[in-house]
Amino acid sequence: MTNRRLISLVTGVLIFAVLLPVVLSIWLAHRQAEESFMNELNTFSQLVKMRVERVVNQGKTALRQLETFKGAPCSSDHLLMMRQISYSHRYVQEVLYLDNSRPLCSSMERDSTASTFPAPQTIGPEGFKAWIINAETPGFKRNMVALGSQHHVVITDPLSFIDVLSFGPWPINIALIGRDTGQVIAATQPLEPAMVKEIINSKTQQFHAGDAAWHVSPAPELSVTIVTWAALTPLQQNWHRLLMIWLPLGLLFSLLIAFFLLRILHRLQSPHQRMLDAIRAREIVVFYQPIVALNSGKAVGAEALARWRQSDGTLLAPDVFIPLAEQTGLMPQLTRLIIENVFSDMGAWLQANPEMHISINIDPTDLLNRNLPVLLRQHIHQWQLSPTQIALELTERGFADPKLSVPVIAALRAEGHAIYIDDFGTGYSSLSYLQDLEVDILKIDKSFVDAVEYKNVTPHIIEMAKALNLAMVAEGIETEGQLRWLQEHGVQFGQGWYYSKALAKDEFIAWTQRNLQAS
Length: 519
Prior knowledge:
six-stranded antiparallel β-sheet, alpha/beta, TIM Barrel, about 525 residues, 2 domains
């Protein structure tokens, strides 16, 4: 993965990581508030269900006791027993004796005037019958829940089933709804018919509807549905309260993540990383500026000049990024890439034109790199070239320490490589190294070529090169006048815009072909 993609990835992760804790804290606050709210509602629903079971069980107990009576129905003893049962059982309001579903007597009157009971809505596993009767049922004037055995029925006020207090922080309502009839038997708050229908048709135990949360559970023995509900306003209030706890934590966590990721991003965007990524992505390409013999105008080779291709297609010149590579310690990697590109670009061309050469700029630090001669040797052997076709250019800084540079340069010359002194006269001031070093060519810097007819130093440089038996290459030739002056003073080779700018490999090969044909 390239550094650019890594930066994009880290930036995306940074945005995600900053937003995630905030979003998560909001979600957690809402989730915790909702869980607390629903747990309170569920707990209360269980209490109501336990209350319903307690009332039903008490009715069953009363019926079992009534069925033990062996005397005459509706006799004084029978009526006494029914009254005792009604008084001793808290939830039993009245006891009736039935004969073929018709009440004959009750704990409240010897001769009952109650209507004939309809068929029960449900019969439980123990054989107990259950009726859910409301005031609209023919023959009955009030809502009631009845539980019956073979001959007896106990009547319970529906409100007894929902007489449960909520001790929570917010009010919770209760309702009993007939499962088959859809009638509201008892409720602490009125229910709209549309809401009753939604409750009956609900497939889930918990749901939100309107501005309330609802919990629905069946009571099979009574054929009723137990409904509890509470307004969502306390949920929203609790959410806001919890948000004041979770949101600062989320923001703090986001800041911590952002701090660490920004440090990583800063490192990825450092000059060292950018330069290293450019080398790894092979964004450093090589252009070639022709070197010509000044007397004939015929091309003899080229200088390899590195360019850094940017994402927008523009090219950075070496004087911009070479110092960066030097400062970040990446010159060995950069030199290796340039050498590989030169052979990849020009290997076949050099093989076909053995009289041509390419000069490659190397850094003083490259002289300490033991892999440099090996790398050159491998590529020369691969392309079956002569070592003389690869020249090496060093600036004067490369000769600042003769003890280090002399043996390395001697070894490179022994391999067959010509050694150029690049930008002569602009760097290291001592000239004594010229006597100690064995080099081949001196390159006259463009600053000495500009307006050569007015320069007093340039003739001395030329005479010194002649005295040391060094060939010369003049850089930056741009005018006919400069060319004539250099020819008159015995400079053998030159390069510059007068001949050609630095060219991409295909353009250079085409230019050279035209140049040789014209010559």
